[in-house]
Amino acid sequence: xxxESLPPVYPLTDFFRNPDRGFFRLSDxxxxxxxxxxxxxxxxxxxxxxxxxxxxxxxxxxEARCLTRETERDIAEYYWKGxxxxxxxxxxxxxxxxxxxxxxxxxxxxxxxTPYPETRAGIAxxxxxxxxxxxxxxxxxxxxxxxxxxxxxxxxxxxxxAENPGNIIAWHTDHHGRLRAATASDGLETxxxxxxxxxxxxxxxxxxxxxxxxxxxxxxxxxxxxxxLSNRGRDCLALVIIDPDNP
Length: 247
What we know:
247 residues; five-stranded antiparallel sheet; 0% helix
């Protein structure tokens, strides 16, 4: 084979470098386009940061504006909350204790919604239909356990919704953002817990061991049953509906 017929050789670094621009997201009202691109501040290494650009219909209008100034590491992912707040995860000095951070589209102010030392947090539910709140799970109270809070993205005020007794490894919300199910484990067996409302206590539905699994995916759209991936009674995973009255 002649050298002319060989395919081009690309540097290995091309496969791992950040895109010049990517991760495009539309605001809920369709008036703003957000995206990320690498940018350097004060001659430091270029980090992925969030930019926003106003739209005239479907056409970008004016210049894109850099909304964040992260210098320690790339922003890995971000989300719109309504049409004037963006959310992303941020740790400090590489400690892997990620916090949930909100940035105001117009003012550019950045607010740490989980401003606790040595605490890891994550979004449990973005509460799409609620313009002011999200559900956040964090381990400020007890490092080994993640409690769930309703957090106001504008004020940072939080309200405890569920305290983890120490064995909950996952929380599950219905389509109204209500905390209705949980997955508990003692290290050997896993139990799916369920409750009719947030004022009720959780009750066990199904307990499995290492030979079988039940992984809740979402509530049915009447908010009564659960869709789950399970291999109970079969040799492969299947999508099933779990009826709390007859699990």
